[in-house]
Design goal:
This protein is an alpha+beta fold and about 375 residues long. It folds into two domains: about 5-180 and about 300-380, Zn peptidases (Aminopeptidase, 3-Layer(aba) Sandwich); about 180-295, Alpha-Beta Plaits. The chain contains nine helices and 19 strands. Strand 1 and strand 2 (about 50-60) form a beta hairpin. The longest helix is centred in the first third of the chain and has 21 residues, at about 100-120. The relative contact order is 0.19. Bound molecules: zinc ion.
Length: about 375
């Protein structure tokens, strides 16, 4: 199938996490016809849905280039707000509309088409694989991480991974990602003593220490950033208290904040810094404080070298841009690949990802295929 047609077929499967709705079968058929060996991995875990995954490979031995991607998409939101059916890709004014057009079914189609072209014109020396999960937008528990564990148990070894997430802010070729910040979410719950606001002497207001804790943390300069990373940043995402009547001092008050952090920190160093701020701001031993940390990603940076140079020169050659190697943005499954191999991310423009009327420039899908073709050619030269 031609690259845009393949993108459209992938979009036609309403594969909202965790349901794959035939999208992996479709991809598997395409790859099997090209000579790939395909294995499916269905994983289960407690309190999270079962998820199907696909690992397809062709060739053997080193070097091994793996493409990392996900076929699952986020929900469409208000379907009536879309100008076209989100699961029936529609071309209009040079754009292709549909859920997953940007994030990231077009990139999967582009890589598959690039490999097909490569195999038609070259003899395979080494290994090309695709690790495709249907659990990236969701909890990401039964996805890429488990597939990697499983294939490594069976003796697989990947040298380099190209993740096809949309990395460009507004023009194709602007940005390649070679690392990501870590992400830690902290919940602080302070319990005091509920009572009448008119008699504060009989109460212990939990909001007072909580706000000074949050204020102190907000005003800390965590670091100044590095050559490759922006400064670490904290954002408060929620503040709430248990009661809500205007004449009650509440019993408990909870604050939640997220820190996106660079390689100047570890989750341990941040946890002890937060613990210290908390204890400095709790001035009464009658307060009870519960702190929970959820570190969903560690920061990482791929060393610049042959692989990042292949990706950059291929992007620049096809697009005429001078792409930057950055670490901005949210997390992706690159956080799992980085424990096994070097990893870089390049894909389409991400501006409309997860939005109503998600779309990409149709022309960019073909260009992305050309970029991936060039990366593959250079990689196996
Ligand atoms: Zn994505």
């Amino acid at each position: 199938m031609e690259v845009v047609e393949l993108t459209k077929s992938l979009i036609s499967c309403p594969s909202v996490t965790p349901n794959n709705e035939g999208v992996l079968d479709l991809l598997q058929k395409e790859l099997t016809d090209m000579g790939f060996t395909c294995n499916r991995y269905l994983f289960s875990d407690t309190d999270t849905p079962d998820v199907d995954n696909l690992f397809a490979k062709i060739g053997s031995g080193a070097p091994h280039l793996c493409f990392g991607g996900h076929t699952d998409v986020v929900p469409v939101g208000d379907e009536n707000a879309w100008n076209s059916n989100p699961f029936e890709a529609t071309e209009k004014n040079g754009k292709l509309y549909g859920r997953g057009a940007s994030d990231m079914k077009s990139a999967i189609a582009a890589f598959v088409s690039a490999v097909r072209e490569y195999l038609e014109n070259n003899e395979m020396k080494g290994t090309i694989s695709l690790l495709i999960t249907n659990d990236e937008e969701g909890p990401a528990i039964n996805g890429t991480r488990k597939v990697l564990e499983e294939i490594y148990k069976n003796g697989e070894k990947i040298d380099s991974c190209l993740v096809g997430e949309p990395t460009c802010p507004s023009n194709l070729g602007e940005m390649i990602k070679i690392g990501r910040r870590g992400s830690i979410t902290t919940t602080i719950k302070v319990s005091g003593k509920q009572g009448h606001v008119a008699y504060p002497e009989w109460t212990l207001n939990p909001i007072n220490p909580l706000t000074s804790i949050l204020n102190t943390l907000c005003n800390l300069e965590l670091d100044k950033g590095t050559e490759d990373f922006p400064p670490s940043n904290m954002e408060i995402v929620k503040i709430e208290s248990s009661e809500g009547a205007t004449n009650i001092v509440p019993q408990t008050s909870t604050g939640i904040f997220n820190i996106r952090y660079n390689i100047n920190h570890t989750k341990e160093s941040l946890q002890s810094m937060i613990n210290e701020v908390v204890s400095k701001n709790i001035n009464n031993s009658d307060y009870k404080v519960d702190i929970t940390f959820n570190n969903s990603a560690e920061p990482f940076l791929t060393e610049k070298g042959k692989f990042t140079e292949i990706v950059k020169s291929s992007v620049d050659e096809i697009t005429g841009m001078n792409s930057s190697l950055t670490t901005t943005g949210g997390t992706s499954d690159a956080r799992f690949f980085k424990d096994y191999c070097e990893v870089a991310e390049f894909g389409l423009i991400g501006e409309t990802a997860h939005q109503i009327d998600e779309n990409v420039n149709t022309e960019d899908i073909t260009k992305l295929k050309e970029i991936y073709s060039l990366i593959i050619t250079k990689y196996f030269q």
